[in-house]
Write a sequence for this structure.
């Protein structure tokens, strides 16, 4: 497998999605505490468990795309949208004062890096020849 910026980025996103999926599925309250956020209401783990499942699904998609980017462009496109929404939501809540930059840490800049790499290295044409 040829190592490229796109594949490395897809792998990094996959690992991050996998970690977030596991954390939100099994330890949302502890994660909030580590970030210095207030104690979460009792219903929040339910919502985070649903998010955790989706994050694990996106991890799977990123690992598929990492192996064969040309075949899985839809996963890459979906992740570009996810990263854009993540960044906009993060900046919105920082500007509202709901969270601080130290609390959001990588969410304040990683989506921009990921979007840049995914857009610039996006596989534009399917390299396979259709008979």
């Amino acid at each position: 497998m040829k190592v490229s910026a796109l594949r490395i980025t897809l792998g990094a996103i996959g690992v991050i999605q996998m970690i977030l999926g596991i954390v939100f599925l099994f330890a949302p309250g502890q994660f909030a505490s580590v970030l210095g956020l207030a104690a979460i209401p009792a219903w929040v783990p339910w919502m985070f468990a649903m998010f955790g499942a989706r994050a694990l699904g996106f991890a799977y998609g990123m690992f598929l795309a990492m192996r064969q980017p040309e075949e899985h462009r839809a996963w890459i496109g979906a992740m570009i949208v996810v990263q854009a929404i993540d960044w906009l939501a993060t900046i919105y809540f920082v500007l509202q004062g709901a969270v601080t930059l130290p609390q959001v840490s990588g969410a304040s800049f990683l989506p921009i890096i990921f979007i840049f790499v995914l857009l610039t290295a996006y596989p534009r044409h399917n390299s396979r020849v259709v008979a």
User: Anything to note?
Assistant: The two ends are 24 Å apart (CA to CA). DSSP finds six helices and no strands in the chain. The mean pLDDT is 92.
